[in-house]
Specification:
Structural class: alpha+beta
Distance between the termini: 18 Å
Order of helices and strands: EEHEEHHEH
Radius of gyration: 14 Å
Strand order of the largest sheet: 1-3-4-2-5
Number of helices: 4
Shape: globular
Strand content: 25-35%
Number of strands: 5
Largest sheet: 5 strands, antiparallel
């Protein structure tokens, strides 16, 4: 299940943006439940974060597969979000319960439009 793309701004055609795709594999179904509970707080954090352009989540609980896809104004905005609460604390508390996480970053121009899940998943593979 993919969440609908949540936009917080429009892509300016001539501007360059940072895209982040992440794969977050929980080791167990119990850690999946903790991740779900924390995700709503992180979504609220995203809505208040300067520099987020948009994001979507992929959740396949029975396959223990979760991924994120987000577009940022720049690296500084992404780093500020990642280091702020509640994201920072949630990731720290879940880290021992996660399999190997993977992060892929690339740049797009606003004229390219938002990135696709098919492209993000191919980059994560």
């Amino acid at each position: 299940m993919k969440s609908p793309w949540k936009s917080f701004g429009t892509l300016e055609p001539e501007r360059e943006y940072l895209v982040l795709a992440s794969s977050i594999p929980p080791r167990s179904l119990s850690s999946t439940w903790r991740m779900f509970r924390g995700a709503s707080a992180v979504r609220r954090q995203l809505a208040q974060t300067e520099g987020i352009v948009g994001f979507s989540l992929l959740a396949e609980p029975l396959r223990k597969r979760y991924a994120t896809l987000s577009v940022w104004a720049d690296d500084a905005a992404l780093e500020a979000f990642a280091g702020a609460e509640p994201h920072h604390a949630l990731m720290g508390s879940l880290a021992p319960e996660m399999g190997p996480t993977k992060f892929v970053r690339w740049s797009i121009r606003g004229a390219d439009g938002r990135p696709s899940w098919s492209d993000a998943l191919a980059r994560l593979a």
